[in-house]
Queue: 2 jobs
Job 1
Amino acid sequence: MNQKNHTPIVIIGAGLGGLTLARVLHVHGIKSTVYEAEISSGARKQGGMLDIHEYNGQLALKEAGLFDKFLEIINEGAQASRILDKNGNILLDEPDDGTGARPEVLRGDLRQILLDSLPNEVVQWGHKVQSVSSLGDGRHEVVFTNGSTITTDLLVGADGAWSKVRPLLSEEKPKYVGTMFIETFLFESDIRHKASAEAVGDGAMYALAPGKGIVAHREPNGTLHTYVQLNKEKDWFDTIDFSNSKKALAHIAKEFEGWSEELTALITEGDTDPVLRPIHTLPIEHKWERVPGVTLLGDAAHLMPPSGEGANLAMLDGAELGKAIIANPSNIEEALITFEKQMFSRSAAEAIDSEEILDLCLGESSPQSLVNFFNGVNLAV
Ligand SMILES: Cc1cc2nc3c(=O)[nH]c(=O)nc-3n(C[C@H](O)[C@H](O)[C@H](O)COP(=O)(O)OP(=O)(O)OC[C@H]3O[C@@H](n4cnc5c(N)ncnc54)[C@H](O)[C@@H]3O)c2cc1C
């Protein structure tokens, strides 16, 4: 192998997890290269609002030396939460009084802070992994679909749910949990969709019933970003013609017949083509035997139902792996043992919680179950 193509530390995936790792290493003078499938940072709109928690995402940002930059991109007031029933009655309303521990930021803004904090050459865009293989002695070869090939001493799979690196460590594949999220956007809602804007309020709104829900966040400029949630098998969606967005949305809205109009408008009035986001998971205690020279972090390691923790966990993983390497640069295997031990127990606990949260939202006792959760009622009683 040509020595030119050898990179000591390779991170696959420029999501929040991979970039946090690259940044923490960079702060301590350790070089890494991030290979990302997308052709540029602006190739795709980056999700919506993320609440960044004191006990994971914020710790990672401090470790990355980016906490001050993070404070600058917080959307004030967006921590407000409310729960509605299907008739639009407010069952719980928690305004953002400025004392919350989980400020909301746009995912794209957060990713940009990380990208801006790295030298340009660190992220290699347009490098989609085609295959990975072991060369022995803990080294690996990565082949990209653009025809290039590299070798590395440490390969980190931060490449999300459908990781190409994971098969080096584990035979597990993500499984569909039976819940589909359908993403819609309403723009300029304060002018064009006043009733829906009022129903959503200043932050997050959960309108729920057993097996279905309409969950929306207010984003800057009056954008309402909605995840319609339905417990349905994937083939139910195969019967819908998504080439006609309005018809497809009307079809989905039929599942919400009898719900109040300001809620169903979040579906039927969508300004963009609806995007299906099937929810997949890895097993709760997903782990692997140590394989020299390779590890995983974030969704690649522990994919779970959305519970507001996934991006936070990916960032903490990145920071913790960075710290472990910095503490033990001459013995990467020791560093990986330390990192994985902590990650396995941290992510198993969060995976259990995330399944419970999905049940609180869409289970038989919804929406009261989520109200009780917010109110701190002991659910075991
Ligand atoms: C509908 C929904 C809502 C969510 N809401 C929240 C929330 O509110 N809060 C929260 O904390 N979490 C949330 N999550 C979870 C969160 O999105 C993930 O846990 C988080 O993005 C994981 O980060 P990551 O860096 O591990 O992976 P990703 O963000 O998936 O990044 C992986 C990167 O790898 C790249 N990549 C993939 N394959 C390849 C390849 N073959 N070659 C090269 N590059 C590749 C991708 O392009 C991507 O840039 C939500 C998830 C979903 C589905």
Job 2
Amino acid sequence: MTNNNFNPTLDYAKSLDENDSLSSFKKRFYPLENNQIYMDGNSLGLASIDAEKALLRVMEVWKKQGILIWNTDEGYYFNYGKKLGARLAKLIKANSDEVIVTANTTLNIHQIIATFWKPTKQRYKILVDDLNFPTDRYAIDSQIKLKGMQVEDVIKVVSSKDGMFLDEQSIIDAMTEDVAIVLLPSVLYRSAQLLDLDKLTKEAHRRGIIIGFDLCHSIGAVEHDFNLVQPDFAIWCNYKYLSAGPGATAGIYVNRKHFGREIGLAGWFGNSDETQFELKHNFEQAADIKAFQTGTPNMFSMAPLEGILDIYQEAGMDRIRKKSLMLTAYLMYLIDHKLSQWGYSYISQQQDECRGGHVALVHKQAYRICLALKERNFIPDYREPDIIRLAPVALYNTFEEVYLLVEELALIAQDQVWEKYSTHKSIVT
Ligand SMILES: Cc1ncc(COP(=O)(O)O)c(C=O)c1O
């Protein structure tokens, strides 16, 4: 684990901030009202000046050009999904033509399964885990039903032994001859466990199995090297660490070797450029990643991504990951030193190579502690049954904020402040 010989004083937290080479990026993000301290960038990243400017730029083009927006700058906006994809590809070290920005994560899972899952008598199973975010299962199950097959015949679930972590060897053992495709999360949304994508991909490919990952909890926080890993596909949202805005258009990676594969869900923006505007009724599939688009790109849900990618380009994924690991290691250190006597613990992995960008703090009163934190100007989030997810984000959180958060958590527990809050859950926790 990142070992920084931390010490538990406020001065020390401030000294870490003074030596932080990314500290200048905080000003590029808008502070929340009342200067709330935000620890929820793993759910929805904060708005930045760069994202806003990019959004207004698209608005200007639309205002001034109308329909001609599609031709502006030699078709830049017509190709917006590919253009942004090429820049996003750098974050996962993929080739620039292997990523496109389109639709949302859930729809992209539908697209991927519809495209890659071609069940035969011998190979038809879809391997998943029981800790992934539920939408992945909903999409897969409905794809199975659309083929007239039974979910229980097709789905093979690797179960977690403790409800928090997955055992990679159990996943590999489940890659049997009848498995056609594997979809796993890169980072688990509760425990922040980071799986070894390289090892899992190699083992799947050795057995002739197609494999891909849901990067929702790693994109923008964890470094990936897809030129090394070579998975078959990946999907993710851009609104968490990447801060591209609520409901931002999502990303798909498809390994070049699969270009030309017949697309599962076709639409006119997946047609080849040459014949798209001939508007013929026979679909002529684009030969590249464009095939994975369906309809007209959602420009206003894409533009903020363009802005935030400028920030990522300047900051660099290596520095971002390094600081993120230090922030989470520091948080775990403070939990050990200041919170364990108050009934708090954490379940996140100690080793850097197994940890994503957040820490899962555990307390019996987790839900009510979250309510107390919010009233005291801290924004965490809550996940059933007893987890407070805390995501100090490298681009806009400081070590001092982490320190102040831990102090507040100690005070809440010392005074048992949760007594005054209801256990009744609101819609978004
Ligand atoms: C792992 C994972 N996959 C998918 C989603 C949801 O995807 P979307 O709402 O973009 O379809 C989430 C949302 O939090 C998630 O955590």
